[in-house]
Amino acid sequence: xxxxxxxxxxxxxxxxxxxxxxxxxxxxxxxxxxxxxxxxxxxxxxxxxxxxxxxxxxxxxxxxxxxxxxxxxxxxxxxxxxxxxxxxxxxxxxxxxxxxxxxxxxxxxxxxxxxxxxxxxxxxxxxxxxxxxxxxx
Length: 137
Description:
phosphoprotein, EC 2.7.1.69, phosphotransferase system, PTS_SugarTrans_NitroReg, alpha/beta, transport
């Protein structure tokens, strides 16, 4: 949950390496590559300290959303040039039909526009706290 990395590439790798999602990863390197390839198409640094990298990949078996936060900030080439403190990675199997990742992105983006929601995430101290906050989405 607390991100140690200082670059977007390392942050993506760090969050994909979290123990909680390992049972759902079928090919870690493919998953990392697919998310980084999507990032090359255009920044997922939305501004106001938020990044939502995402991608479809054969490296994951089920749709997953991974959350991390950084106290120091991460250089992300964000739209507003600011460092990122909140990161959500949306991972969806490539074979998954439809626009699941876009629906998740829309829901998260809508909530992240609310200052109170962002502050609660930044103040969360445990995985359970984050789950509780996300249940409101």
